[in-house]
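Please fill in the sequence for the structure shown.

STRUCTURE ENCODING:
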């Protein structure tokens, strides 16, 4: 990604911390990023396109984590370290991009983003389960239950400005998923 594009997106996220999406204008974004309108339009059609590109980029990376995990699990006897690494990768990524996730999940929740995030995780978890023997009873319900808890933890963590390190959050989710925390 180009430096100017990162500058534009960072300025946009800062604006989203204070303003609703519908109230943000291209002019506001350009002023905050200290760029000309033509620079903005060199990367995006409009603010909707920019947000969609940002969402798609983050969901693509998260999808890659799940695909990698699924492939690594296929031949592994002990799947627990692979699952633990997945959660560490996921929460480390979210921590690195916490402004984006915090704004779209807790500050000004974007229903479109939340639905896409949960749908991506849901689909990928089911694919991973199926690729690894699919021995779970009622996998759709297990995945929905698991995602509900994970999303609750993610929401709480983001709402509290990611005060805990991603390693701790990954471990909390891992232990709860495997029922080791009870």
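FILLED IN BY: designer on duty
SEQUENCE:
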């Amino acid at each position: 990604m180009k430096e100017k594009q990162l500058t534009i997106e960072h300025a946009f996220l800062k604006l989203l911390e204070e303003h609703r999406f519908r109230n943000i204008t291209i002019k506001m974004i350009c002023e905050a990023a200290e760029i000309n309108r033509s620079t903005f339009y060199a990367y995006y059609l409009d603010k909707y396109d920019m947000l969609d590109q940002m969402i798609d980029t983050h969901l693509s990376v998260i999808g890659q984590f799940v695909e990698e995990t699924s492939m690594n699990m296929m031949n592994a006897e002990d799947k627990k370290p692979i699952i633990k690494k997945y959660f560490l990768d996921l929460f480390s990524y979210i921590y690195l991009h916490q402004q984006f996730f915090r704004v779209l999940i807790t500050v000004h929740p974007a229903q479109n983003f939340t639905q896409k995030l949960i749908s991506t995780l849901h689909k990928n978890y089911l694919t991973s389960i199926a690729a690894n023997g699919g021995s779970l009873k009622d996998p759709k319900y297990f995945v929905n239950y698991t995602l509900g808890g994970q999303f609750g933890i993610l929401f709480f963590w983001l709402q509290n400005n990611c005060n805990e390190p991603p390693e701790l959050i990954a471990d909390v989710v891992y232990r709860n998923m495997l029922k080791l925390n009870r």
